[in-house]
Each structure stands twice: as structure tokens, then as C-alpha cells.
Amino acid sequence: MFVFRIDNRSGVPPYLQLVQQVRQAVLLGFLRQGDRLPLIREVAETLAINPNTVAKAYRQLEQEDLVTGRPGQGTFVNEAPTAGMSAATYTSLRRGLETWLNRAHAAGLDEQAVNALFTAVVNRAKNENIA
Amino acid sequence: MTWLAWRQHRAEVFTLSLLVAAIGLFLLVAGSSMRSLFPDGAAACAGGLTDGSDACSTAIRRLNEEHGYASKMLSLLNLVPFLIGAFLGAPLVARELEAGTWQFAWTQAVPRMRWLAVKLGALGALTATLAVALTASITWYRQPLDVLNSRFTTDAFDLEGLVPAGYALFAFAAATAAGAVLRRSLPALAVALGAYLAVRVVVAGWLRPNVQAPRSIMERVAADDATLDAGGSRISTGDRADWIIASGYADPSGRHLSVYEAVEMDVAARAAGVDFSAYMHERGIQQWVLYHPADRFWMFQLIEAAIFVGLAAALLALVVWRIKRRVF
Amino acid sequence: MTTTEYALRTDGLGKRYRRTWALRDCTLSVPTGRVIALVGPNGAGKSTLLRLVVGLLAPTSGTVEVLGQSPAANTPQVLSRIGFLAQEHPLYKHFTVADLLHMGRSCNLRFDQGLAERRLAQLDIPLDRKAGALSGGQQAQVALALALAKRPDLLVLDEPMASLDPVARLEFLQALMGAVAADGMTVLFSSHVVPELERVCDHLIVLNHSRVTLAGDIETLLAEHRLLVGPRTTADLDKAGTVVEASHSDRHTTLLVRDGGGPTAPGWQANPIGLEDLVLAYLRRPTRHDVEAPAFSEVPA
To answer: Which of A55, B204, C195, C227 is the most exposed place for a label (fewest CB within 10 A)?
Structure first.
């Protein structure tokens, strides 16, 4: 069964943390099609979190078409939207990033600098796409 | 709700019932031995030590010797109605306020006024019941004494009839009210004891003799009265069961004489070599007595019980008002 | 039926003890199904408000309505719809847990003893133990189980976790949130600890110096507020009356504004604000003028 975590100090709203965790797990293949997410009650109880928050996260995941709620049965993971990415592609992309990270470290970049650089590139790409 | 009242107060109920039962048992044993002194019943000796038979004189003498502790014991028993009422009343509200459980109790689906009604009703009824049980055993125990003496003495009047239940209810109400105001059981108990003693002393010492105008008898001293005593008049009302409030001598005009004046006359009589009663008779001195006749017993009981029950009702009204107003 | 859509409504609610007002001018509407945090420093009037809500106190002024009914009426019907856990979760200490359940049954119109027993069994709390012999966390759990067994529509808790250690706190919150998820009741609880609120609550009431200074759904409140950082200025920035708090350092001025977003003035940068900072900002506000106009405060940075 999938296990959620909540970080009180992250500054990210709790519901968004839940959404991101499912999104990431689906992307990384930890959650596969047909997997059942824990019941709202179970999540609320184990995390000591407001059930409305969990419900909201599940609603958002449904809107993103990542999961489907089936009344009386639970919430199930849909076919991964990243079906286009094969395991081989995933592995090779990941390898490439690891190689790049090693170079960055060799060049003396610490974690913060790496993150800043990565974000800057991603943002630039986003802006170019919009433009 | 009744279950809760029972569960909360059952320890006090057990303890007090045990206390009353133990007192009852003791009085049963002591009373049986007292009765065995009078095989024909104490009524046969109602004439007293002087004009009864030899058997009666012996019995009464033995009664005084062997049961002399009765008076002290009985005055101690005056505290039992207080114990009954106060131990049930003091924690009734105070314990809830002390422990904060009033917030727990009054947020169940029992409205607080009903909660209070059940508690006051059940514990008040229990107080009265225990007091009546105590009264019954004391009255049974005192039967020979009551036949021989007036039931108006504090030994008897305060422990028989209706008043003990009234005292107990007053103690119950005083302890409950003190608890509701002070919010602590123990200080409430102390305050209730103070109030109980104060009210009882005032009522018994001042109010009771004046509940109704006493009757009076005034008659000239007989010339040959051998029982005449300079220390005080021993004039009889004709019934040993009457309650003598006061007695003494008076001059022919009816003015009461002080003890000093009476003693002076005694000295003068001796100096003149005349018999005291003859001396008094000659000067027209009268003896007087103020008394309540024995048949007023139940009316006095009723009035005094009503006073205490009335005070109890007023105090309980204060409790109801405080809890209704939600001052906590 | 519009009245029952609100779990709690107050209008001009006030409570005075002799000369001091413990709560005044409290006007609130809280929809059902929320988990509401009542936040404020000690002595702000939180307990007074909660006791008014559950009918333990009668208002000095104004009205309070719970689920469309007046709790001050103190009828069995209203009482059975409200569950209450007072501060320090008082229980009859010499009662066994089973006695307490018996009491719950005998003092309530509806009492789900099975539910209470299941909860206590899950927590390994023995029924034959005296309440006074249980740990603080267990006592809180027993009190919670009793309140939940009433199957209330509104559960009110006064500083429920203040006396609990961290493990007991978590367990208590787990039990509470599980119950909310299962039964969908409205929960109103007070706290003076802010950090753990965000994961638990979706509605917030800030009480300071006997007055409500902020109330609303947390998400809405966070969306309406933002922090503006710009060059230092001491000019009157509050022409629109939206500034909640202003602080100045040597070069910068930081403004907490409630303007619902929108464009920022040139040279100013807008940042979202976290729940904890938002609550603290409202708790820091001076008392007198808070209703009329937000005041500025010089905060050395």
C-alpha cells in the first residue's frame, strides 16, 4: 500500500504535497495502473491530517486523470500518462542526468548551485515554449 | 442519570448507612439491657424515685448508675444528622467544580437542571431516610427514659420525632450551597458545620422556648412544705413530662424574687428559729413556674422541623439559582 | 433549512465576568464539515467562546446558534448533538473506564457503546482500569471516545493536546482525524500552538484580546493575503485599508496585505505567506484599533 508523508516545514500546502507524491510515484513507476490508493480515512488517520485535505488531493488527482475514484471501492491509479516513456528511455535519461551531476560536482557546484542551475534552465525552456 | 448519581455517591451512601446501622445495633443492645431493668415496663415506675415501689426505686437507681453515659452519648448523636446531610451534600456540586468534571457532566444529554434535580432529589431523600432510621432507633432506645422523663429535654427533643430529619436536610442543603459557592468540598464541610451548630444553638436556646407563650402557675407557699428549697422553687406542674422553662419565688405583689433575696429569707428564718416554709408562708411569698405542657411536644417538633426544612429549601434555591445562572 | 448549513453562528456574542469582558462582539459563521482551529494566546477568550458554544455558559450579549439551535437552551436535543472535551479532559478519576461508558449510556439519548469499546480496544485501554490510573494520553483518548460515542454533529475540544507528550499528541490527532473521516462531523478546537494546525484544520478563527481578529477558510485566507517587499518607505501605504502589518528594515519595507492578489507596484515583489506567519501577524496586532484601521509597527530588522 502506498504511504504518504507530510512535511510540516516545507511550506507546500499539505494537499499539494499529497498530489505531488502520487504524481512522482506514478512517474517513477512506484504506482502502477490499477493500484489502489489508501482510503481517505486511512490517510487521515495515519498522517493525523484533515480528511478534507486528503479528499481535495484525491479530487485534484482525478482532475489530472491520474486516478479514478470508484464509489464504494476506493481510488485507483489510471494508466500512466507517461506511457510513451519506456523503461529503457527512463534509465537512459536518468543515466545522462547522473553523468551531468558528476560533472557539476567536479566543477565545484554544491547542491544549491545545482538546483539553481537546473531551475533556471527549466524556467527558460518553459518561457521559450510559451513565447 | 440516576445510575450516575448512585455510582458517584455510593461510597458515601455505604459509609453513612453503615454508621447508622452500627449506631442502631449499639442502641438495640444498650436499649435491651435498659428495658430488662423494668420487667413490668417503665410506665409502672413513672411516679419516680420517691413515690414508686421498692422495685422501681432499685430499677431507677440502677438505670442512673448503669446507663448514666446515655446523656453524653445522646448529645454526641446530635452530630449524626449533620454527618448524614453534610457528607452527602458537600461533594454534590463542589467535587464537580474541584475536578473540572462539571464540564463533562453538563455536556452529556442531561440538561443541568435535570442533573441537579436528580441529585438533590435522590440525595435529599436519602438524607431524610437515614435520619429517620437514626431517629427510630434512638426513639426505641429512649422509650424507658421517655416514660420517666420529659421528652422536652434536649436529650430527647433533639433526637426524636421530626426534627432530626429537619436538621439533616438543613446540613445537606448548607453543605451543598457552601460547596457551590466555595467550589471545594472540605471547606464546604467546615462552613456547613459552623452554620449547623450556630443555627441549632440559636433555635434550641432562644427560639424553641418562645415558639408559643409558656403557661404559668403562681401559688402561695404552703406553711408545711418540707421540700421547699431556698436555692429555687421546686413547684410541680402536675405532670413530670411538662417542660419547665423557669421557676422561682415572688412576693405577694407577684414581683419575682432573686435567688439572693430567697437565701436572705432563709437566713432570716433560721435566725428567727422558724421553719423556712412557715416563714415564707407568713409573708405571703408565692412560688411560680413557667412551662410548656407535655402535649405541646408534637406541635413544637412540627414547628422546629418546618423551620429547618424551610432554611434548607432556601439554601437549595440558592444552589439552583447559581447553577441555572451558569456562573462557573 | 439555511440555518442548519452552519455548524456555528454567532452574532455580537459577548460574555462578561463581573467587570471584564472575556469575549465581545464576536460574529462568526462556520459552515458544517469543517475542522476549525480557534487560535489565540492564553487568556484571549478561547475557553469562554467554546463554553458558550456548548452551552456551559450563557451569553451576556448577542446570540450563539449551533446547528440552528441555541445551546443556551440546554435541551437534551441540543446537548446530544454536541460533543465536548474540556481542557485537561476531566473525567471521574475513581470511575473505571467501563463505569464511564455506563455513564455515557445512561446520560445520553444516543450513545454508540460499541464504537467507544472498539476505539478503546484498538488503543489497548483496559475497561476495568480506573480512569485516574491511566496515563494522560489514555485519559484524553477515553474522553475522546466518550465524546465520539455520542455521535455528535459538532465536536468541541478545548486545548485537547496541551497536556500531552508528542507521541500522545500524534495518537490523539490520528484518532480525531480518523473519526472525522469516518463520521464527517464538524470539529472546533482551540489551541495556542500554530505549527500543527495546517495539516489538521481547514478553517481558522483568530481570537486576540477577547475579540475575533481573523476568521475564514484557511485556503481563502492564504490566497487573500500576501507579503509585499519593496524599498523602505514610511509614507502612509494603507490608503486602501488593506495593510495588516508593516515592518521596516534599513532598506526594505515589508507589508502584509489583504488585497486578494492583483498587480504589484513597480519595485515591489509579492510573496505568498504561510499560515503560521499569518496567524502570528494577526496576534501581534495592537488591540484597540484593530477593527477600525490596521496600525503600523516599527519592527527593527
So the answer is: C195
Query: Using CA atoms, how far apart are residues C154 and C35, in angstroms rounded to an integer?
Result: 10
Dist. CA B19–CA C217, nearest whole Å:
62
CA distance B230 to C165: 84
Q: How far separated are the first and last CA of chain B, in Å rounded?
A: 21
pLDDT digits (tens, 9 = 90+) for A51-90: 999 999 999 999 999 899 888 888 999 876 655 567 788 7
CA-CA distance, C87 to B129, in Å (whole number)? Answer: 39
Three-class secondary structure of residue C91 per DSSP: coil
ipTM of the complex: 0.87
E strand or H helix at B55: helix B54-66
State whether residue A11 sits within 8 Å of chain C by CB: yes
In tens, the pLDDT along B119-138 reads 999 999 999 999 999 999 99
Alpha-carbon distance of A111 to A96, in angstroms, equals 17
C-alpha of B289 from chain center: 23
pLDDT digits 0-9 by tens, B14-50: 999 999 999 999 999 999 999 998 888 888 887 655 5
Distance CA B105, CA C272 (A): 45
- In whole angstroms, what is the distance from residue B35 CA to residue B40 CA? 9
Task: Write the CA distances from B291 to B152, B233, B258, integer angstroms.
Answer: 11, 13, 19
Cβ–Cβ below 8 Å for C79 and B1: no
Q: Which CATH number fits domain A14-77: 3.40.50.300, 3.40.50.2300, 1.10.10.10, 3.40.1370.10?
A: 1.10.10.10
Asked if C169 and C127 count as a contact pair (C-beta separation under 8 A), the reply is no
- Interchain pair C198, A40: CB under 8 A: no
Quick one: cell of C149?
460515542
CB contact under 8 A, C199 and A52: no
Give the residue from C154, C277, C291, C158 showing the smallest Cα distance to C214: C291
Retrieve residue C67's grid coordinates: 446547528
Subunits adjacent to chain B (3 or more Cβ pairs under 8 Å): C
Nearest to A48 among C174, C182, C222 (CB): C174
Torsion of CA B80, B82, B88, B93, to 10 degrees: -170
Whether B7 sits inside 8 A of C103 (CB atoms) is yes
Cα torsion at C136, C139, C141, C145 (round to 10°)? -170
Decide the pairing of beta strands C203-208 and C211-217.
Answer: antiparallel
C182 contacts in A (CB within 8 Å)?
41
